[in-house]
Design brief:
With about 525 residues, the protein is mainly alpha-helical. Helix content is about 55%, strand content about 5%. Strand 3, helix 21 and strand 4 form a beta-alpha-beta unit. It is globular. It starts with a helix and ends with a helix.
């Protein structure tokens, strides 16, 4: 059967398509080079400049997030993998610290760049599904105004780069669907491989897209020989970190099981509300319009696998008890398709009034998202925001935390300090001591949490006092140490109820066993 006819039967556009021939080459199936509108360079660039400016201005407020402190520590122990993540984010954190300084603003340059790139790719997605300049501009504005993009652009996170990878993969899949050219499997494979170097969640996206392609009758795409080439490229890029996981017993699975066990019920209950809140309630009409375009507009029927993929992914996330934001990148892609629908609505009837409505809606989304995702409020006003975005509160109080630890360290007689150890309950605490501790004369901290366990234990010769640091409601550490007494409490000074507020610092006389014997029991993943 002629491939152009087959594509037409499946709903793919034929104008401007490149159709593969039997010898693997391609030819134009129409008179137009691409069949797409020109890219809205000026409007999208304007949105990117504003976004980057806002993120840069606010990047130095509050302080490090606990995960950023962990990434800094991991960047000093570079490896092809860690128990809870692949190597890309720690590597980029180390690069940013070296180039721009070991400060919150310095680290967050790479997050700002990633979010700016995400907005550009969202505009490309809108263009791919038929948006003109207006639709592309609206899609980019909505992406930049969403709480998800603003929040991830404000801090370094594995999800920051995962979002960029997911929307890029979806854009490339759309190019494959639109053109029918199997050679797009090669850059798709490369994007997946790079994504695996950052976070393993891309497996969920691939599974959802596979089910979507099968459900929508696009099996032909999976029979291309270029798919095998793309798979080889992806495995070549991801191979080192997959090999690391395999040779270390796949600890990432243990971490994932812990997340599901600890937070699974809460994640399922909050799934829909957080999808709406984290993107922005004001943007709901845009992504609803995107779904409507995929399902009802004959011109975008060829792209329907993307619309299939989102509910499939949502069901999978609910079943495994994953975090609601796992599904947000695909919802952002659907929202990109809604940009053209909103632009078309604004062109009908009373154009001036409708454009004002659209502008006000996007502005309201931006203001709402900035309050929830960016450090624009005084720290002592974060109690309401923390209910929606607890990551805000996790950026407050680390210098005060280390000051409290230093006061506890001062209780140790100077003659005993060479044999003394600081041991923390979690990696955020250890990372903060490693970052701010030298200014207080503190040694590097040890912890059994996540990959910190791989960077310890203390030597058995460190048989002196142990200064333990734990959260206020967890007294489980005490059974591993002797003669413990409280010497300090953590107070961030602004009343922010984060994980460390009210934390307990205890001075113990020693350990119940040598560190080398005790260490396996101190290791924990959540």
């Amino acid at each position: 059967m002629d491939r152009a006819a087959d594509a037409a039967r499946e709903g793919a556009p034929t104008a401007g398509r490149r159709v593969s021939t039997r010898d693997g080459r391609s030819r134009n199936a129409g008179h137009q080079a691409s069949g797409l509108a020109p890219f809205a360079t000026a409007p999208v660039a304007s949105v990117v400049v504003v976004l980057a400016g806002v993120l840069t201005v606010t990047s130095g407020r509050y302080g490090f997030h606990r995960d950023e402190l962990y990434f800094l520590a991991a960047s000093r122990h570079l490896a092809w993998g860690y128990v809870d993540q692949p190597p890309l984010t720690p590597f980029l954190t180390g690069v940013a610290a070296a180039l721009f300084g070991e400060t919150p603003a310095g680290l967050r340059v790479v997050a700002t760049l990633a979010s700016a790139a995400t907005v550009v790719v969202v505009a490309l997605v809108a263009r791919e599904v038929g948006a003109g300049r207006g639709g592309q501009a609206i899609a980019s504005c909505c992406a930049a105004a969403s709480g998800f993009v603003l929040g991830l652009g404000h801090m370094v996170s594995t999800t920051t780069f995962d979002l960029l990878a997911w929307v890029t993969i979806c854009w490339l899949i759309l190019r494959l669907l639109r053109t029918g050219d199997g050679r797009w499997w090669v850059p798709i494979g490369a994007a997946v491989g790079i994504s695996v170097l950052n976070k393993y969640l891309v497996v969920l996206l691939l599974a959802a897209l596979l089910v979507a392609l099968l459900a929508s009758g696009r099996r032909r795409m999976l029979r291309s020989g270029w798919l095998a080439v793309g798979a080889v490229v992806g495995l070549a890029l991801a191979g080192p970190t997959l090999w690391w996981q395999a040779t270390h017993g796949w600890p990432q699975l243990t971490v994932a099981a812990g997340i599901s066990s600890d937070d699974g019920v809460e994640n399922r209950v909050s799934f829909v509300p957080l999808l709406i809140l984290q993107l922005s309630p004001f943007l709901v009409p845009v992504w609803v319009a995107g779904f409507a375009r995929f399902w009802r507009d004959p011109a975008t029927r060829w792209a329907r696998p993307i619309a299939w993929a989102f509910p499939v992914l949502a069901v999978v996330v609910l079943l495994v008890g994953g975090k609601p934001y796992y599904a947000l990148p695909l919802l952002l892609v659907v929202m990109a398709a809604g940009g053209e629908a909103v632009a078309a609505w604004a062109r009908r009837g009373r154009r001036a009034a409708r454009r004002v409505v659209v502008g006000m809606g996007i502005a309201a989304a931006g203001i709402n998202s900035a309050l929830a995702a960016l450090p624009v409020l005084p720290p002592d006003a974060l109690s309401v925001v923390n209910a929606i975005n607890k990551e805000q509160g996790e950026q407050v109080g680390w210098p005060a935390f280390v000051t409290a630890v230093a006061s506890g360290w001062a209780e140790i007689p100077p003659r005993d300090r060479p044999r003394a150890v600081i041991f923390t309950q979690n990696y955020g605490q250890a990372g903060a001591i490693d970052r701010y501790g030298p200014d207080h004369g503190l040694p590097m901290a040890y912890s059994g949490h996540m990959s910190y366990a791989d960077w310890g234990p203390p030597p058995d010769s460190a048989d002196g006092p142990v200064l333990t640091v734990r959260q206020k409601d967890d007294a489980g550490l005490e059974r591993f140490f002797t003669g413990c007494r409280e010497v300090a409490r953590v107070d961030n000074g602004v009343g922010v109820d984060n994980q460390e507020q009210g934390g307990v610092i205890e001075l113990c006389s020693g350990t119940v066993e040598p560190w080398s014997t005790l260490w396996p029991r101190l290791r924990h993943f959540y």
